Amino acid sequence: MSQVIVITGLADGMGRHVAKMLAEKGNSIAGFDVDANGIESLKKELDKVSGGNAKHHLVALDITNRKGILKFRDEVLKKYEKIDTVLSNVGIGFFGPFEEIDLEKALKCLEINVIGAMAIFQAFIPHMRERKEGKLIAMSSIVGQVPFPFESIYTASKFGLEGWIQALKYELDPFGIKFAVISPAQVSTSFAAKIHKLPPKDSPYRERVKKFIDKDNEMIKDAPTPEFAAKVIVKVVEKKKPKLFNQIEFQSKVFYWLNKMSPRWFRDFLVLTIMDIRK
User: Fold this and answer.
1) Which DSSP category does 223 fall into?
2) Strand 177-183 to strand 245-247: parallel, antiparallel, or no bridges (unpaired)?
3) Which of 57, 71, 92, 93 is the most exposed place for a label (fewest CB within 10 A)?
4) 3-state secondary structure (DSSP) of residue 182
């Protein structure tokens, strides 16, 4: 059965692949992204898939624009009269030793990754609550379960996201709303490369950060493609009652279960060993 699906951050990467795959299956896609050019090109692709019948609703919009999100919601509900699933896919990375980071820039990461998801969910919750059905799905990361050094701000954003989702689930369970969190470990995109930056030469963290980056770059070569990740995401979206926690690939599954079943000292040992930054 086809759905009306809201997706944020769908102009490129996994979000774009997910939107195209879902449209090809006959679903209606409503979404936004700050990348106006990406939105325009995606519009053409989705219209081509759907026979040019204006089935989809895509706009250029920043996730931090609260009034814009509410306007988008009103447009979507007027067009479709119902929303089945909201997929919060907007997110940015943040990298560096905590001691040396700019907290104003860190605030932007938290604003987009956490408050952004809250804003799009809050906009559509009243509609889903009244219908007593709907799915709220958030893209997270394995660092929302297993913390990684030099990614403390990004880790904080994903821990915050997953903690909030679990609390919100308690609030909305009586209204038939389902939740899912999807957590990749690594996907072969430029996501990490865009934020990896060595500290200054006199930084006490420089040597370990370099080892971390080198190891991460090595591991990304064997990471699954965005297309592979998108197929997993689509499967979660299509489920009537998805699991709360969903992993993308083998690595994220291993870390998820190690975190649940192993003592913390072993998890910490494993993370530091894998990233080649033990003392």
Assistant:
1) S
2) parallel
3) 71
4) strand
* Domain segments of the chain as ranges: 4-274
**pLDDT tens-digit readout, 13-34:** 999 999 999 999 999 999 999 9
First vs last C-alpha separation in the chain:
54
Instruction: Count the Cβ atoms, other than its own, within 10 Å of residue 193.
Output: 12
Fold for 4-274, please state it: Rossmann fold (3.40.50)
73: its two tokens? 């919601």
Counting as low any pLDDT under 70, the low residues of the chain are: 52-53, 279
- Give tens-digit pLDDT for 200-250: 999 999 999 999 999 998 888 888 899 999 999 999 999 999 999 999 988
Q: Pairing mode, if any, of strands 177-183 and 28-33?
A: unpaired
Amino acid (one-letter) located at 59: V
d(CA 275, CA 220): 12
Q: Which of 57, 68, 60, 6 is nearest to 33 (CA)?
A: 60
Q: In 3D, which of 122, 131, 129 has the Cα closest to residue 164?
A: 122
Against a cut of 0.90, is the pTM above it? yes
The continuous run of DSSP H or E covering 80 comes out as helix 66-80
Report pLDDT for 53: 66
Question: In 49-173, which ranges are E strands?
Answer: 57-60, 85-88, 134-139
